[in-house]
Amino acid sequence: MLGINRKLVQLENEGKYIRVGLVGAGQMGRGMVSQIESMKGMRVVALADIALENVKHAYETAGIASSDIIATNNVDEANEVIRDHKVVATTEADLLTKIDEIEVIVDATGIPDVGASVASRAIVNKKHVVMLNVETDVTVGPILKKMADAANVVYTGSAGDEPGAIMELYDFADAVGFEIVALGKGKNNKLNYDANPETAAEEARQKGASPKMLASFQDGTKTMVEMTAVANATGYIPDIAGMHGPSATVDELASLLIPKEDGGIFSRKKVVEYVNGVAPGVFAIITSENEEVNHELQYLKLGDGPYYVLYRPYHLASLETPLSIAKAYLDHTPTIAPWHGMVAESVAVAKKDLNEGESLDGIGGFTAYAKILVKEEARKQNALPIGLVDKNVVMKKSVKKGDIITYDAITQTKRSTIWSLRELQDNWLS
Fold first, then answer.
1. What's the domain range around 405?
2. Whole-model pTM above 0.90?
3. Looking at the domain assignment, is residue 339 inside a domain?
């Protein structure tokens, strides 16, 4: 079987390429457009963002001539532009789901409701969906996967995102026959539950990133969400609410992230975890009861055993997303998906004292951060998923800082796609 790279070359030699629609021209989107433009057999033929200048900038920095960037919000014109081998710039994300010439849609917005809307409409229109939007996936991924399966298209998370990189380690270790004890990632900034767009503003400016996005990393939300995606894909769960989050080096992982009876911190095996100090890497802790296998692992300098670390010291974020696009289109295979349904949940926790009548403001904002819980505990507490938190959610009773926000503490001022999908999913999984 040909590798993805050879299949893409073959496609291009046949005068064809995978036609990609991308939603989001921020940091992740810009990098993806430039990376894809350097590849064989693939092109971002349409790019949507609320700011048209962001779209044009992304295309131009990828080396596409301004004369080949056609701004339109019309479906028929967009199809004609793509057939003419030019590219579409639009402010309407929904337009991409309707364009016949597009075969794969990528959501790179990080906004849960936008991701839910784009993904569901793309699936209805028989397009493969690649989610560089883990926030949507951990909220309504199972129902989106069910819809995609029924439509005979692929719904997948992205290679290069940490859940996708962890999944690659898991698939490798599982296929080889190792017992996998734990799966995890490093965190590269100190946990600060109080982080918000104001406290993150200066660092965000230096990095050219969104303050809100950076705050969602600093307050732990991104880590919780990413490991929830891994949990729902593998069936592994957090050992405790919020995970342990120890500090360690790579060499220390195999003696730390193991059961307590063997000197570690876990009360069980098959755990998802994060560690301060090994970022930006991802890892799997493996073991084997076979004497010859242990001898070979020790000979190969993976340690003294009986636990060993498989460690990947990098993940290339959106620069690897094209691999998931290619796998979906060429092999009809997802990189990562919620095969186990919902085994864990990222729930909303009050970032400050919240008062009756106060509106929430979404991920990375001033009002809430995420904590991972096992599904049963989240349901027992009637906990609100972090992906449902936005400006249309209003407190109908007060919640203290550090407490979980519950469904009965909030009301909605406007119905959204992700809320509707979540209701369908809850009814289906109940």
1. 344-429
2. yes
3. no
143 and 269 together in one domain: no
Residues 178, 156 share a domain = no
The answer to whether residues 44 and 94 belong to one domain is yes
Task: Give a three-class secondary structure readout of 227-240.
Answer: HHHHHHHHCCEECC
8 Å CB contact between 368 and 386: yes
For 236-254, the pLDDT digits (tens) are 999 999 999 999 999 999 9
Q: Are residues 225 and 271 in the same domain?
A: yes
How many domains does one find in the chain? 3
Asked if 292 and 203 sit in the same domain, the reply is: yes
Q: In the beta sheet, which residues pair with residue 318?
A: none
* Residue with the two structure tokens 């295309």: 59
Report the chain's C-alpha Rg in angstroms.
22
Does 61 have pLDDT greater than 80? yes
Q: Which amino acid is at 263?
A: G
Task: Give the helix ranges, DSSP H, for 158-284.
Answer: 162-176, 201-207, 211-218, 221-234, 250-256
**Among all chains, which residue has been given the structure tokens 């997303």?**
321
pLDDT tens-place string over residues 196-246: 999 999 998 998 888 998 999 999 999 999 999 999 999 999 999 999 999
Position 299 scores a pLDDT of 97
